[in-house]
Here is the input.
Amino acid sequence: MNQRKILAALLILCTVVFISCKSALERKTEKRELSLRKSAMLIQGEIEKTLKAQEDSVKAFVKSLPVEQKISQLFLVNIAGNEKYHPVEYSGALKGQGGKGNFLVPGGCLYFSYNIAESSEKMIQFNDSVRNFCINHNIVPPFLAVDQEGGFVNRLRSLTGPLPSNKRVAECLTVENACRLYYLQGIQMKALGFHLNLAPVVEVLNSSNSSFLGDRSFGQLEQVLSFGTACINGFENSGIGTVLKHFPGNSNTDPHTGLPEILWDEETLQKNVLIPFERLSSLNPSGILMSHARLALSDSKTPACLSEYWVSQVLRNKMEFDGLIFSDDIFMDALQKNGFPPEKAAIMAINAGIDCIMLSEKRFAPVAKILLEEGEKSVEFAEKLNSSVEKIIKWKISRGILKFYLNDDSSWSVIPAEPEPIEARIQDFLPALSENIDLYRKYFMP
Here is the structure.
């Protein structure tokens, strides 16, 4: 009996000790978890504080810009030459003074075939000369953009590895291999000094646009979604921004010569444009480029790139796209010959919600002057201009054109970023070029 009492007592004692140990362990665990949560909250608070400070520094930077530099950020414009950069306009042109004042440099430079140098080394030197000129003259460096779709729209064909058309890529490659191809192209483009690729075309091919798009489309909806994803991911992961085009579609009329009219019903519009753009825009491409087409379904009298309905209501609000929105070239005949000359189109584009206006011309001061004058008359218009400038500056920071700088007083500033040395970029370029060629030989050559 005594033994049973002793055993019972021991059992009770062990249970009490176990419970006590468990409670102590739980308390210790809870204390550690509480400490970790407090640390995480402190870190999160510091991150939010830093992000807010950086956001404020962008606003301060934009506010500090001379008016000619601020308005210039809203233009993607062609430039002269391919050896050493020099602007063709002066700030005096904004005041009707012609070639007087400071140099006028657009927010983005659009390269055509004649801007492409004869070798990769010379291309790097020319692109670096754009940045160096701006730094030497205290001007915000532009982003450098080019149409590198593939196929016949392939500005860098003489420098980078082979890039077949979207149609051929969808026919010959798996999605994984396509992503690799676009990544290799992006590595080469970045090494050369480019920042933005005006690609891919993500319109579904159909009888009403096939004559115009041809090989530029990946094909049917499933192919557009799969290979469009590969293209976006490939380029963006390499450091080159992508721009989806052309929203909300095209007809067989070439906008260089006429105004496309789209007569689709709602179901056809969904399949051909709204579904691919909505799904692919969720991958966070850098931008979307609007088409000049007019659509019978909504705002039928206004080209899409000038339409508040298509730019803001559909693309910005309904699809929740928060990247850059580009107009197509406002000097195209689609606009000029149909009641929308550049001076009118520019104001309509900004009111519609466009962030960056594309001009195939080298001189943009006359159009910029009109926007400045409109901003002086309308507070709402001036706010739209300022909002777009801030978006463009933020994108330039994300691409290493500008950067945040922590000052000695713990405040932040926005300053130009230093590019990688030419030697390092050539070392990136050559292996990517070699692999690109090998991939092409394996899958595209008989």
